[in-house]
Structures are given as C-alpha cells and as structure tokens.
Specification:
Radius of gyration: 66 Å
Number of helices: 12
Strand order of the largest sheet: 6-5-9-8-7
Largest sheet: 5 strands, antiparallel
Number of strands: 16
Strand content: 15-25%
Order of helices and strands: HHEEEEHEEHHEEEHHEHEEHEEHHEEH
Structural class: alpha+beta
Shape: rod-shaped
C-alpha cells in the first residue's frame, strides 16, 4: 500500500498545483488585460478631450477661455460621460482648477492628464480619473467563479486518476499474486533468462527437480545444466528466441546435482531481447511419463506376443480338432475297409507265392510280372497298414535299439532307384534309443520313401544323426523340388498330400508314431532346393544302454 499511497499523494499535489495555478492565472490574467484596456482607453479619451477643448474653447478665446467655467464644464460633461466611477478636471497654467465634472471616482483610481496649448505654448491641463473598484469587483467575482470551478476540477481530476490508479494497482497486485503463485508453487521449472543466457530468476521447483538451490545458479549460464547431446539444439532455440521467434515445445535432458539427467519438455517465449530479461522458460519433467509410455509399449508388445501365441494355440487346436475329426471318419472307414482288403490281399499274396513255386522254371517275363504283382500287393498292404495306424496308433513297446541298425533294416526293405544316392552320417558314438523298434522303423521308412519320391529325376538322400541334451535328432534330407510355403502348414493333416498318387496318410503316421514314442518332428523346405525332416527321439539311460 505504501507505493500506492505515495503515488496518490503525488497525484493529489499535482492536481492541486494545476488547479491553484489555474485559479490564480485566470483572475490575474483578466485583471491585467482589463487594466491595460482601461488605461489605454483612458489615455485615448483624455487625448481626444484635450484636443477638443483646445480647438473649440482655448483657440477661439485665448485670453478669456479660463474664465468660462460654465461653458467649459458643460462642454467637458458632453465629452466625458457622466459616471460616478470617473471624473475630470481642467487646470490653468497656474495649476488652478477652473472646471470639473460632478463624478467622484472611488479609491483606488487611475488618472491620465494632457496639456492644453495655444500658439505652441502650454496654457493648461486636462485630467481624467477613473475608479478601479469595478475592475476589482469583477475580478473578485471572477475569482470566486474560478475557485468554484477549480474545486470541481480538482475533485474530478483527483478522483478519476486516483480511482484508475487504485484499479490499476489492484489489477497489478492480482496479476503479481497470480504470477507469484504460479512461480512459487508450479511443478515445472520456471526461469527467466538474460540476453547472454544467464539465469535471472528460478522458482522453487528447480531445487525439487534438480537438487540444486536456485540462488546458487543465479547469474550462471543455462548451458551448464543441459546434456551435451542436446546443447546445440538448446543454443539454436535460444538464439531464435532472441530474434523474436517462438519455438514449439522440444525435448532435452537436464542435469541433476547427483550427476544424472532427467527427460524434460521445454518451452521458451521471447520477452524483451534488448532488456534485462530476454526470455522466460518452462521445463517439465516427463521422466515418469516416458517410463509409463515405455511400460505401456512393453505391455503392448507382450500383449501382442500373447495374442499371437494364443492365436497360434487356437489355430493349432483347431487343426488338431480338424485332424481328430478326420481321423474319426477315417477310423470308421479303416475298420471296415482294412478288414475287407486284407483278406483278398492275403489270398493274392499266397497265390503269387504258389505261382512262383510252380512256375520256378518260367521265362523271365513271367517271373518279372509275378514279382511286380507281389510288390504291388505289398504296397497295398502298406497303405492299409498306414490307414489303420493313422487312426489307431498302438501303444509303443519300448526297447533299447541302435539307430544304425534300424536305418540299415529299413534301407534293405526299400527299393532305391538307380538315380538316387543314399548317404549316411551316423556317428559311431551315438547312444542307443529307448523307443518301439517297429514304430520307429515305420517312421524312417515313410520319410525315406517320401524323400525318394520327391527326387523323380534322381538326387541325393542324406540320413544324418546327432545327440544333444539326452535325445537323438535324425534328419532325412532330399534334393528334390521342395515344398511351397503355403503347403507347409498342412503337411501333417490327414488326406492331404503333395504327391500325384498319394493319399495323405504317410506323414500323419510319422507324426503319430513319433509323438507316441516321446519325440517330435520338424520340417524345413525351400522350393527348388529340397526338404529336410528332423525327428528327435529320446536316448536310453546309462543302465539301459549297458544292458
């Protein structure tokens, strides 16, 4: 309140001085101008009267004019208006009054005199007096009017500025209070910067976010708390601000007293580049927000992974359900068809055996056709067995077997075309397997048969094995045409095949028998470069291997 009271007192004195000068100046000016007018008019009037008396009285009767009192007074009264505020007298050369008018001016008066001449010599004098009392009365009345007007003017001029002053002061106080509240209690750092980039003011949030006391940083350049990687950008923005350009909110790292940095978003606004305060800066700590955003991003990625995994599980479950539905249908068909086909196939096989015995001395063509018939009967029996095995896998009769023996037995039972070369890479140190020999042999037979069928124009079939983590991985690789990517996901579905004459049961049997023996199967293929099937089966324990 003290600054406001002092300013109000100053304004009051200025208004009083202005009104006082006005009150004094107006009557004084009026009095001065009127007085000058009165003296001027009095001198002119006296000059005219003296000239008239000289011409009409003195010059016509130079000897006796001063004895014509009645005539002179009558003539004098005609020339000088009869008014109590003024009067006149005529003197002779001896300074004796020889004529006068009846008016008696009241004090104070002003007088003016002019000489009467005859033949170039002075013979008398005319004097006219005029009272100043009317001027004083008018001046006094005008002074009263001016004083009243001045008091009114003083009231108006004092009231309006003071009222506006108090209103402006209240607005300024409210604005300052709001600014002070924002400055003191804001969660963000608020600082004022000088044109050279030094801190002019820092709010308490600076200490809370950085660990430094604000007063220790006053007069220091802001560049000392900016991360070196962000410093060029901060300097460029500050220079643009000094040029009067506003910059959108940008991110940078601010140092702490602990030596760490926190993420912030900074906005800077130009104020008075040529003054003591060039810009105001607001820095917001966004570390928690960045951490929350990063956590949300990780959660989204985890959720996406879980959704994808769940989708894969659902697709796998759907495929498994479709597979089981197909197997259920196949089970119904296989039970009747398998029984109906095996009997005639057995009779046909016996008949071929009888013919081979009876016709042991037949020609080569006959022997060739008998062998062909027996081979096709074996193929038909294998198809019937695959059909039955695909829908009702028997529980495995686990035993300790050596992989090299199983592969050898399988290759001896399969005819290998002349254009196909079989290569083996089976380590001698490979541990034995704990599986059902018959079922694993069927798995190997189906995979080797598929590999041979995939190389219609010839190629190399590679059978390799390796031991890792208590299991043996067996790979069957061909150099055939490969499998298209869109067919890979359907390879193990019943009744799906990539062969022209296949029925789509071989890989179903492989998968079922492999999983029944505690293993798993994987496939990799590239069109034009062949396919590799990898079967992983459990090894026998130390005691079982020794037995």
């Amino acid at each position: 309140m003290a600054p406001t009271a002092n300013l109000a007192r100053t304004v009051a004195w200025l208004v009083a001085l202005f009104v006082g000068v006005t009150v004094l100046a107006v009557p004084a000016g009026y009095s001065y101008i009127t007085y000058r007018y009165m003296t001027g008019s009095l001198e002119s009037e006296t000059e005219v009267i003296a000239h008239a008396i000289t011409q009409n009285i003195v010059s016509r009767n130079p000897v006796y004019w001063e004895f014509e009192q009645v005539r002179m007074e009558e003539y004098f009264s005609r020339l000088l208006s009869s008014d109590e505020s003024q009067g006149g007298r005529i003197f002779n050369q001896k300074k004796e009054v020889i004529a006068r008018i009846a008016g008696v001016p009241k004090f104070p008066v002003i007088s003016c005199s002019r000489t009467l001449t005859d033949a170039g010599g002075v013979v008398g004098q005319v004097e006219i007096s005029r009272s100043l009392r009317p001027l004083l009365l008018q001046t006094g009345l005008l002074g009263l009017i001016v004083i009243a007007a001045g008091l009114g003017m003083f009231a108006v001029l004092w009231h309006l500025p003071i009222r506006s002053l108090y209103r402006a002061q209240n607005l300024a106080r409210q604005s300052e209070a709001r600014y002070r509240g924002i400055f003191e209690y804001a969660d963000d750092i608020i600082c004022l910067l000088a044109p050279d980039g030094r801190f002019c003011s820092l709010n308490p949030a600076f200490a809370r976010l950085t660990g430094w006391q604000p007063e220790n940083w006053l007069g220091k350049p802001f560049a000392q708390i900016i991360h070196p990687d962000d410093l060029p950008r901060a300097i460029e923005v500050f220079r643009n601000t000094l040029a009067g350009h506003s910059t959108p909110v940008f991110a940078l790292k601010i140092a702490k007293a602990s030596g760490e940095y926190f993420d912030s978003e900074l906005s800077i606004v130009p104020m008075d580049p040529g003054g003591e305060i060039a810009a105001i800066c607001i820095a917001r700590d966004v570390t928690e927000r960045r951490q929350a955003e990063e956590q949300v991003r990780r959660l989204n990625e985890e959720l996406e992974e879980k959704v994808q995994e769940r989708t894969r599980q659902l697709l796998a479950a759907q495929e498994d359900l479709v597979r089981k539905e197909k197997l259920a249908v196949l089970g119904q068909v296989a039970g009747s068809v398998g029984h109906e086909l095996r009997n005639p196939l057995g009779v046909m096989n016996n008949a071929v055996y009888f013919l081979q015995t009876v016709l042991s001395e037949a020609d080569a063509t006959t022997q060739e056709y008998l062998v062909l018939i027996k081979t096709e009967i074996a193929t038909a029996e294998r198809i019937v067995s695959d059909l039955l095995d695909s829908v009702r896998t028997k529980p495995p009769q686990a035993g300790t077997v050596w992989l090299a023996e199983l592969i050898g037995q399988t290759l001896r039972k399969l005819p290998v075309p002349d254009g196909v070369t079989v290569e083996q890479a089976i380590p001698a140190t490979l541990p034995p397997l704990r599986v059902d020999p018959q079922q694993v042999q069927q798995v190997l037979r189906n995979l080797i048969s598929n590999g041979i069928d995939a190389m219609a124009t010839g190629g190399t079939l590679t059978i390799a094995a390796a031991e890792a983590d208590g299991a043996v991985s067996i790979s069957v690789r061909d150099t055939g045409s490969g499998i298209a990517p869109e067919q890979m996901t359907r390879l193990f579905q019943p009744l799906y095949t990539t062969k022209a004459r296949g029925i789509g049961l071989g890989l179903v049997v492989v998968k079922n028998l492999t999983e029944a023996n505690g293993g798993r199967i994987e496939v990799q293929s590239e069109p034009g470069r062949g396919t590799v099937f990898t079967v992983t089966l459990p090894c026998a324990g130390p005691a079982e291997g020794a037995a």
